Amino acid sequence: MAILNRLMRGRAAASAAAAAAAARRFAAAASSEVGAAFAASVGREGETAERRTKRDPRSWNVQWVFLGCPGVGKGTYASRLSHLLGVPHIATGDLVREELASSGPLAKELAEIVNQGKLVSDEIIISLLSKRLEDGEAKGESGFILDGFPRTIRQAEILEGVTDIDLVINLKLREDVLLTKCLGRRICSQCGGNFNVASIDIKGENGTPGIYMAPLLPPPQCASKLITRSDDTEKVVKERLRVYHDLSEPVEEFYGRRGKLLEFELPGGIPESWPKLLQALNLEDPDDKQSAAA
Ligand SMILES: [Zn+2]
C-alpha cells in the first residue's frame, strides 16, 4: 500500500478523464506491479490499438473487480466508486434478478434453478455478464466495477478470456468485527429498509489500531418493526465466511500473481474508510471537498 501511495502521490481529479491523465503521468514511474496495473487501469485513453487485447474499449478506463466477504460492505464501496468514476456498478446478483424478472432467454432456466435452491452455474453467470458488458460497450460505457464476481478460481479464469481486469480491490475487515456487524443486521418488516444495530468501538492496543463503526439505526417509524434475517445467526454467518474464504483465497492468489491485487483493510465504518480508500486509489471525491468547505 505504501508503495502504491508513493507511486500515486500526485493529485488526480475525480473525473475518469483526469484520473486517466494522471495515471499516464504515473505509469512511467510505476515500478510496483499493482501500481502499474492501476496506472494501466485508468490510462487506456492514450494507448494504441495494438496494445489493447481482447476487447477494444477505446475509452474504457476502469475495469475493476471488488472482492470481499459477505457483510464487509463491498456493494456500498463499489457503488460509491462507480458514481465517482462514472462507470456502472455491475453486481452479478442483480444480473440474475434482472434476468429472472425479464422474458430473456435464460429466465425460465434460471427460475427452475433458483426455485430448486441450486447455485447458478458459472456458465450462466458468465453468459449474463458477457451480455451486460457487450450492451454497455455498445452504449459507450467507459468501464465497469464488478461486484460479486469472480467468486471462484474457475470464474476468474473464464473471466480472463472475456475481458481484461485492471485492478482487483480486496476489502478486508477483522473477523470479530465482521461477525458482530453481520449479527447486527436488521430489516424493517414494513418498508424493507436495511439497518444495523451493532455499535463497534474497539480501542487500539499493542500496536493494533482501534476500530470504530457507528450503528445504522432506523428512523422512529421503523424501530418497532425490525426483524433479523433467519440466516443471520452466528453459526450460519461463520459457515458463510468459511465457504467464502475457501473459494476466494485462490482467486486472491490468482490476481496477486498477476500483480493486480490491492489489499485494503477497512479502518472502520464508511466515514473512516471512504477517504482512505480514495487515497489508496489516488482519487478525490469532489462532494467531500465541497462538504468540507461548506
Ligand atoms: Zn420501515
TrEMBL record:
<dbReference type="InterPro" id="IPR000850">
    <property type="entry name" value="Adenylat/UMP-CMP_kin"/>
</dbReference>
<keyword id="KW-0418">Kinase</keyword>
<protein>
    <recommendedName>
        <fullName>adenylate kinase</fullName>
        <ecNumber>2.7.4.3</ecNumber>
    </recommendedName>
</protein>
<keyword id="KW-0547">Nucleotide-binding</keyword>
<dbReference type="GO" id="GO:0005524">
    <property type="term" value="F:ATP binding"/>
</dbReference>
<dbReference type="Pfam" id="PF00406">
    <property type="entry name" value="ADK"/>
</dbReference>
<dbReference type="InterPro" id="IPR006259">
    <property type="entry name" value="Adenyl_kin_sub"/>
</dbReference>
<dbReference type="InterPro" id="IPR033690">
    <property type="entry name" value="Adenylat_kinase_CS"/>
</dbReference>
<keyword id="KW-0808">Transferase</keyword>
<dbReference type="GO" id="GO:0004017">
    <property type="term" value="F:AMP kinase activity"/>
</dbReference>
<dbReference type="InterPro" id="IPR027417">
    <property type="entry name" value="P-loop_NTPase"/>
</dbReference>
<comment type="similarity">
    <text>Belongs to the adenylate kinase family.</text>
</comment>
